[in-house]
Amino acid sequence: MKLRCAILDDYQQVALTAADWSTITGQVEVKSINQHIDQQDELVELIADCEIVVIMRERTPFRASLLQRLPHLKLLVTTGMRNASIDLDAAAAQGITVCGTGGAGNATAELTWALVLGLARNIVQEHNAIRNGQWQSTIGTDLYGKTLGVLGLGKLGTKIAKFGQAFGMDVVAWSQNLTQERADEVGVRFANSKEELLESSDFVSIHLVLSDRTRGLIGAADLKRMRPSAYLINTSRAPIVDQEALAEALQNRWIAGAAVDVFEVEPLPKDDAYRSLPNLLTTPHIGYVSEANYQAFYRDVVEDIREYLAGSPVRTLT
Fold first, then answer.
1. What's the mean per-residue pLDDT of the chain?
2. What is the DSSP letter of 274?
3. Given 3-state DSSP classes, what are the helix, strand and coil percentages for the chain, each rounded to the nearest 5?
């Protein structure tokens, strides 16, 4: 008898074509669910009989309360090697193996820079103006010679720093763990404090992992430190920035604008204020949504399932 596998939140209906599933379909019956299910009872009804569940990033949280209602679940596979929405301790207590995947690695950095350019040149506003019969309604902000502040100089932060340098920007970086040596390695200026970076930057881009130390790292006082002409870009995790404070900063023009790809509740509720702020550029958490990334994700998902069935799971999360 085949094991049952459910793929959740397959919004674009590409999971089954992004990789070759034929190596496991003899042992596993796979179904894809392309609608987000936010009611736990409805979700349990759909996947209660599944031994394997595949989830996309943090689209559907797997907390203890949900895991306890899935007695058949043996393998949970998440795209990426980090997923703060999974209760790993609860999964381990139930004997559930949790595995992750690799990724293509460039999609989020590329989207971040698209957002930087979109803010600087008012791309969406000018596009809409043309559709409404207008012509040249804004004046763009130059990037050349401006200061780009990068919060976090890991893989993504380093890519963004190099993009900034390619555009002739002065790049400065800071994080709680960043050293002068690392900044020198990348060829950027080292900010002695978060405050120094915020006060001196024209664009601030966040590339930090969400943790107890980074949750709420950017609050109202920090946003007030930024220049009135400055822009904030967040493609990491929403809770790194105080969401109410950011809305207030945009409404009161403490900063010129912001761009975000991440939200505390996803999908974003239809009545959320973030849908209507005129100086906020939003995208629906598509930083990782690219052909190469999806192919890498689901290729590894298939391998995770195949190796689990062989008794030697790979890329396990603890």
1. 97
2. G
3. 35, 15, 50
pTM across the whole model: 0.92
User: For 225-252, how does the pLDDT look when each residue is reduced to its tens digit (9 = 90+)?
Assistant: 999 999 999 999 999 999 999 999 999 9
Q: Which residue has the tokens 């943090």?
A: 58
For residue 315, CA distances in Å to 124, 279, 301, 307 come to 40, 41, 10, 10
Residue 187 reports pLDDT greater than 90: yes
For the chain, give the percent of residues with pLDDT over 90.
97
Per-residue b or e along 35-66, where b marks 16 or more CB atoms closer than 10 Å to that residue's CB: eebeeeeebeeebeebbbbbbbbbbbebeeeb
Tell me if residue 58 is catalytic: no
Answer yes or no: is pLDDT of 27 > 80. yes
Choose, from 59, 207, 225, 237, the residue flagged as catalytic: 237
Nearest to 224 by CA among 249, 250, 193, 241: 249
Residues 6+ apart with CB under 8 A from 34: 9, 10, 11, 12, 13
Q: Residue 124 — φ and ψ, nearest 5°?
A: -65, -45
Residue 132 has pLDDT above 80, yes or no: yes
Would you tell me how many other CB atoms lie within 10 Å of the CB of residue 286? 13
Does residue 237 have an active-site annotation? yes
Catalytic residue among 207, 225, 285, 303: 285
Query: Tokens standing for 212?
Result: 């107890």
Give the distance, in angstroms, between the CA of residue 22 and the centroid of all CA atoms in the same chain.
30
Reply yes or no on whether the pLDDT at 149 is more than 90: yes
Task: Give the whole-angstrom CA distance, residue 194 versus residue 271.
Answer: 33
Question: What span, in angstroms and rounded, lies between the C-alpha atoms of 197 and 176?
Answer: 12
Secondary element (H or E) of residue 32 = strand 28-32
| Residue of 126, 196, 199, 266 marked active site | 266
Per-residue pLDDT for 318 more than 80? no
HSE, side-chain direction, 13 A CA sphere, residue 85: 19
